[in-house]
Amino acid sequence: NDESQALEETWLAPHANEALGVGRTLAGGRMLNFEFMRIVEIKGKLTYIAQPGGEPSTSFERTDGGDDWIRFENKQHDYPQRIEYRKAGDGLHAEIGGPGAGDKEEVVSYDYKRCE
Fold first, then answer.
1. Exposure on the CB side of residue 67, measured as CA atoms within 13 A
2. Who's near 101: CB < 8 A, 6+ residues apart?
3. What is the pTM of this model?
């Protein structure tokens, strides 16, 4: 499929120690899929909760991070097992990773730019 896709991800400003986000993939004038996301503190740990396509949610606990990046992981999940966001200039670099062929991590990268 040579049809170009656009991935949008929008986050509301954190309120009451919780951030809400929504993402969608668009192509050819239609929406291919969507996802609801939350970042909330659970038992003292920042937790990323993903709910793609209205399916049951999956939680990923923060395992690392710094001033301009954060990593969430769930080693019990099939794919992805890692979600990472990193500030990149005026934009945001995101990666998801998990088990791939030959015991190597399969990584998918996304480079976001701020929209008006």
1. 0
2. none
3. 0.90
